[in-house]
Amino acid sequence: QILSSQFSEMKKWVLPLLILLSVQCLGKEVKAGLSLAFNSNFFNNVKDSILPFLVKSFVNQSTVIGPLQVDAYIFTITFEVSESIFNDIHAEWKDTKVIMSDDKNSIGFQIEGLTIDYSVNVEWDTSNHLWFGKGSGHVHLKDIGFGISFSPLWDDKTKSYGIKIANVESKITKEDIEITVEGNNDLFTVINMAQEAVKPLLVGKMTNITAADLQTIDGLANGLLKSLPIETEILPGILLNYGAAAAPNVEDDYMELSFDGTVYAIGQPSELKPAPIPTFSEEGGAMQLYLSQYTMDTALEALFLAGFLVRDINGEDLASPVALDTNLISIFVPDIKEKYPDPRPIKFQIEANPAPRMDLQKDNFKANGKVHVDILAKTLPQDSMLLSMDVDLSLFLDAHIKNGKVFMNVNNFDSNILNCNSPSTVDCDSLKMLVQTILNIVIPQANDILSNGFALPTILGINFKNANINVEDQYLRVDVTPEVSGEMLHYLNPSAPVNHKLDPQKYERIRTFYSELARSRQIAMMMCE
Questions:
Q1: DSSP output for 306-320
Q2: Which pick of 78, 109, 494, 523 has the fewest CB atoms within 10 Å?
Q3: Contact 118/90 with Cβ under 8 angstroms?
Q4: Which pLDDT tens digit goes with each residue over 289-341?
Q5: CA distance 419 to 391
Q6: What does the mean pLDDT of the chain come to?
């Protein structure tokens, strides 16, 4: 009775606890062919490359505030930043922080002690068009704070990812801004004196980020993401589907994106099903690319269906220490010597059937398949069959990445003859040495071709120069130390015009100067008349 009573009490909390643990463990399981995972170290590694572009976008959105109209009481002068020369931008910061939040499903950057120097081109005109011109300006921002956070999104209908800017904030006062304008006209002296009117506008633009500003950033970023295709042709007639497979997963120390990863021949969709893709590994790099056995199997299946795994190889084209002719085959099928007393060149017709499959196990990278081989003598008017056989073949592979290229190598093989046929009498067991001889000739030459490597692409400015491959059960994990090249963010669009009137008492010197300019202009016009 005591045990029964205690068990009844345990059932009240043990069963819900087990269900909760099951949901927590299985709820984020994703079946996909490819995935990308990033931890906070990734963002720390690339922030020195990403942040200048974030700063450029932020400054561009904040400084293009024209046309700015200044009421000088004699006339109105309009000047605007017509071009931001970000080639000359220089930015430094004292401290940065990457914040990843599971609760908010967001990633953010916070910058403190930010100093920015950049140049602009300025145009000006007056309301009566008496004076107009162009010049250059220099803006110096010092000791400001800046923060931005975003949440990754998933569109199940289009199978694409997007982002939503969750928050943008900055900390700046007008004392943190210095503006210098240069030109070939005295009016630029006036503009320099009017910078106290411009500073509050810059502070307002940099600290009051509106919903419209966030919508602009969202629109640009998501427009770029949605413009990316979800399929690409990797070989003639063979496509890779890399549409988003599931919603992004943001944890407190990493983020994951998963992709379909199916390779298929056009018009012949694969019937294979993906297995669950692994989650972020604590043992891996700052950026981790997971390539599943499923993706590799669908690639081999697509190659098979598209006819890429059928090859004719002339023995004469192979560099071999022994002559690849009928005399070689006669060693294993003696009757052939009688039929071809004079040696004839041979050729191999090789076809994988059915499609090969990969076998990935911990530190074991292997491809398995059944290969049909026909060996023919090159004769006239047509080639003559010497021997055919079905071989169960396993290739043991290794792969590594160096300087942004993937290098693969067949380091061993295993073969088993399933059956054989010949117009002459043949013993299948005696052909094992022939198969090994042929493979020992073909594989080194295949390795020579593979030694050129395959260049990995630069994705969104991230290259794979510093990477290594780990073979795990049913997938490869590529650990990457990221390097960023190219601009990762597009510049933001200029904002709407802003009007601002000067305080007449504070800027009496400017008004007097304008008056003198206007009077000089009137005198000059009278003299012309």
A1: TTTTEEEEEGGGS--
A2: 523
A3: yes
A4: 899 999 999 999 999 999 999 989 999 998 888 899 999 999 999 999 999 99
A5: 7
A6: 75
pLDDT value, residue 402: 82
CA distances from 45 to 38, 98, 253, 480 (A): 11, 10, 14, 11
For 3, the token pair is: 């045990």
DSSP state of 253: S
CB 39 within 8 A of CB 479: no
Place of tokens 């017509």: 82
Read off the tokens for 483: 């390097």
Question: What SS3 class is residue 50?
Answer: helix
H or E stretch at 287: strand 287-292
Query: What's the rounded Cα separation, in Å, for the pair 172 and 145?
Result: 7
Question: Tokens 């600290």 appear where?
Answer: 207
Tokens 């290098």 label which residue? 407
Question: Contacts from 423-428 at CB under 8 Å and sequence distance 24+?
Answer: 423/385, 423/386, 424/333, 424/334, 424/335, 424/336, 424/339, 424/386, 425/333, 425/335, 426/332, 426/333, 426/387, 428/389
The Cα–Cα gap between 205 and 65 comes to: 8
φ, ψ dihedrals at 128, nearest 5°? -100, 10
User: Beta strand 454-455 with 384-402: parallel, antiparallel or unpaired?
Assistant: unpaired
Half-sphere exposure of 56 (CA within 13 A, CB side): 20
Instruction: Report yes or no on whether pTM surpasses 0.85.
Output: no
pLDDT beneath 50: ranges in the chain: 1-27, 86-87, 486-511, 513-514, 517-518
**Which amino acid is residue 269, in one-letter code?**
P
